[in-house]
UniProtKB/TrEMBL annotation:
Organism the protein comes from: Martelella mangrovi
Job of this protein: Provides the (R)-glutamate required for cell wall biosynthesis.
Entry-linked PANTHER family: GLUTAMATE RACEMASE
Gene: murI
Identification of the protein by name: Glutamate racemase
UniProt entry tagged with the keyword Isomerase: yes
InterPro entries in the record: Asp/Glu/hydantoin_racemase, Asp/Glu_race, Asp/Glu_racemase_AS_2, Glu_race
Catalytic activity line of the entry: L-glutamate = D-glutamate
Keywords on record: Cell shape, Cell wall biogenesis/degradation, Isomerase, Peptidoglycan synthesis
Binding-site residues for substrate, renumbered to this chain: 13-14, 45-46, 78-79, 193-194
Active-site residues, as the UniProt record annotates them: 77, 192
Amino acid sequence: MAEAREGPVLIFDSGIGGLTVLREARMLMPDRRFVYIADNAAFPYGDWPEEALLAHLLALFERLLDDIRPACVVIACNTAFTLAGAALRARFHETDFVGTVPAIKPAAERTASGLISVLATPATVKRDYTRTLIESFATHCHARLVGSKYLAALAEAYISGGAVSDEVLWAEIAPCFVEEDGRRTDIVVLACTHYPFLANRFRKLAPWPVDWLNPAEAIALQARRVLGQRPADAIGETNRDLAIFTSRDVRPEIARLMQGFGLIVAGGEGA
Ligand code: DGL
């Protein structure tokens, strides 16, 4: 375990997806202070070549860890963690990193039909990490990988009040639904932290009911375990939760969404 230190809990994503994890983490750790980082300068990560994204993340964390000195970091992003988790832990070994990976293991344990789908960014479905998870835990089932180029951006648009049509959403999730020898997909893993914001829409569009697996609570539980009894950087009137954007070019609806989550927005138009 890394050296124990006070400081806020840093929750990191390319955009708003990590809010799905922050929501759970706050419920489990109401006294802790959180700093939310949205790397909007680089959003979406799903389009980045692996080498460039890895170098970008290592350089960004060099600065973030120096500036924020967090008690621990939650990488609330599958696309980032499946690529850079090991390198971040190796480079910054004095910091505890809690990761987010596609919830293939729990899906494989729970499926009754043996057909599961993994809905993620195109980058996450291509990662060696994801293939290894399937080889390690899901060889007894059929795991279909569904890479969506647009859903992360659609989730950002939808959650900030934009119109997103059923047709567009259906085109992205339709390949998740497989029927084979009288069996049907019964679990869809939400392997991008943005997607739980669209889960109610997905439920309405599904041709049959499936379990939409959202790992946010499990990630928050792991963060609480890692932090243990460490002295908290306590939340208070003068020490509130922050949202920091890596680019000042923040859409006002996104800044308002962060404020709606009770975060003080630093950087961007909401500052
Ligand atoms: N929220 C991120 C994830 O969990 C991905 C969004 C993006 O493409 O940047 O994978």
